[in-house]
Structures are given as C-alpha cells and as structure tokens.
Predict the structure of cysteine-S-conjugate beta-lyase.
Amino acid sequence: MRYNFDLIINRRNTNSVKWDSSQEDILPMWVADMDFRTADPIIQALEKRVQHGIFGYASIPDAYYEAEVSWWAKRHHFKIKKEWIEISTGVIPSLSAVVQAFTEPGDKVLIQSPVYNYFNSSITNNRCEIVRNELKYNGESYEIDFEDFEQKASDEKVKVFIFCNPHNPVGRVWSRNELQRLGEICLKYNVLVVVDEIHRDLIYRGSKHIPFASVSELCLMNSITCTAPSKTFNLAGLKTSNIIVANEEYRKKVNRSLNINEAIEPNAFGIEALIAAYNEGEEWLDQLLDYLQGNRDYLISFINERIPELKVVIPEATYLVWMDCSSLGIGSKELCNKIFEDGRLRINDGSAYGETGEGFIRMNIACPRAFLVEGMERLEGVVKSTYLKTEMEEIR
Ligand SMILES: Cc1ncc(COP(=O)(O)O)c(C=O)c1O
C-alpha cells in the first residue's frame, strides 16, 4: 500500500514531549521522534492487543526473538542467534546498565564528541569519568582522529567505549575500514565496545550501515550492541529495545545488571509492536526512507539557495540534520534562543552535544514536508535578521 507521509496529524494534547512541552505557536523540530503515523501492521497488532482488555505482566514469546533475528538478516545481512538477545526498556537504560556492569567508580569511558548527550549521564551516573575523542570536522563532514583515539584508549582506566553507529548528531555512516580500526585498537587495549545502533535503519541512498559486530569475530566477541525499533518505526513511547551480546560471559553480566536496574521487564505493547514492525514493516520503512530523502534534499537546496550563511553537514543517516552556523558569529545557544523566541521554532543547540558542537545546530526533519517548509522559512527569518544585524553592527 501507499503511505501518505504528507498527512498532518495534530500531536498536541497527546502527552508528547516534542509537542506538548512548549507553547501552541512553537513548531517543534528538536527531540528525535517523527511526526508520522507508524506502519499499519503495527497499529493493527496494537489494536488487537488493546481489544483483549487485560494488560498484566508480559513474557517474551519466541516470535519476538525470531522477528529480531530475521530483521538483522534481511536488513543488515548479519546472522545473529536468538540466545544472544537481551531485552531492555531502552537504549539509554541499556547503556547505563552496561557501564555499571563493566566499570568501577573512577574508571573512564570513551566517547566521540559531539555525540548524543545522554551518553554523558550513563557514564557520570555510574561515577565514571568521560574521555572524549573529538571527531574532526573538515568543513564538510566528520572523520575519526585515530591517533587521538588510540592514545585515549591506551589509558588503562578506560574500560568502555560507547560508539554511535551511525552517528547522532553528525550523521556519519562509518565505513568497514573505520569500524575495523576502532575494533582493533579497542581489542589491543582491552576496551569493551558498546555500540548504539538505534539509527541503523535510517540510511540515505549511497550509504550502507555495517553492524560493528559483523566486521570480524573479534569485533563480535568484544562488543555489545544496542538496538531498538523505536527510531525506525516511531515507537519510542513503547519502551522496547534489544541488546545483542554474542560473548556469553558478557551476556551474563549484562543480564545481571539489567535485572539490578529493573530495566528488563517487557512492555506488553512493545512486544506486539516489535513483532509486527520487523515482520511486516519493510514496505512502510522503504517509503519512509524515500520521503526522508526528499526532506533532506529539500533542506539542502533551501540552505544553499536562501540561507548560505549556514552550512549543512550532509547526513548519510538519521533524520537529524547538523548545520554549521559558526559564520554568524553568535553562540549556538544564543542563536537557538533567538530561533525559539523570534522564529517560534524549536531546534537543538549543538553545544549540548559537547564543546565541539558549539557553532552548530541540529534540526529534526522527520515531519510532513509542509512543516519542513514552514520550519525553514522561520529559520531563514531569524538568521537573516540576526546576520544582517551583526553586519550592521560591524559597519557601525
Ligand atoms: C544515539 C541515540 N541513542 C539512544 C537514544 C534514545 O534511546 P532510548 O529511547 O531507547 O533510550 C537516542 C534518541 O534520540 C539516540 O539518538
């Protein structure tokens, strides 16, 4: 069937973090969920479950594991085993549980900034220190500074590396060669690789996601991979995610830690949604990817033609677009405040993702095209007034 991603659905008054946390006239293009209705088979499966009318504690059926295994095989060409799967209420609870299981307070955890900011709390809440391997911005896209990475990984206090594959917010899909080099360095210094692959299905044409664990047997056995259907199918509120751990010794530790944190109880609706998504959601996803591609390309043309003061870091993955606003000469926090106050548009301030995110903004483009057009016009209005004002101040 043909899905209509242009359809505008009012999300106000649905307890939506994105829509209900700011005034009515604010257009929200920030937190990472989508303004699209999910795939019909998922809605039907949930409706069927609702009709039963009893929502007691749930157990995980075989069909759930089979759906997860089959998704890995058909979308990512990687054969995982059912017994490698641990379930959890979310990727962030999983990361916290893993950090807790594999570190002692005072240990260090490596990340690559700028990066999704909740990694920080998973580390510091476990009384560990954050060590940053800053990604290198070459004016167009981001690369890994391997020399710096190796030097940081060689610190014997560094026990875990939390790796974002593909990367939020810089939009990189890491190559096999990059994955391999990271894997080799981590193995050399006994650093466990915890891979966040929550955005793995949202890849633009021309790029291909490679699961870190699929690169080699060594990568597989020295890694823990966190995934979820939540970003792909817009199911974040259902609190259902999986952790893939091939190494049996690690798996026991992860399971114990999830239990200690009570993050392992399944959500009755999440189970049904995941099964339907992974068994019957491909048609919807392929159409979503075409639509997102159109949104991404629209944004790139708009910026190039109408707001050339900004520069798009063209994403290879994710519906989150990272833009360089450093030429405006004002801090990204101040710019976001202006965009919010004057433009009535809510986007993310890049500095929230680490110091090197200063001078950048992040915009969520997973919305009907009409919202994107409106958002771009609001952004243009603020940038033009801010930019012109700065120029005039310089003249004075
Ligand atoms: C890289 C990354 N990891 C994890 C999450 C959140 O995952 P969860 O809602 O399953 O805790 C997000 C949400 O934006 C994300 O971008």
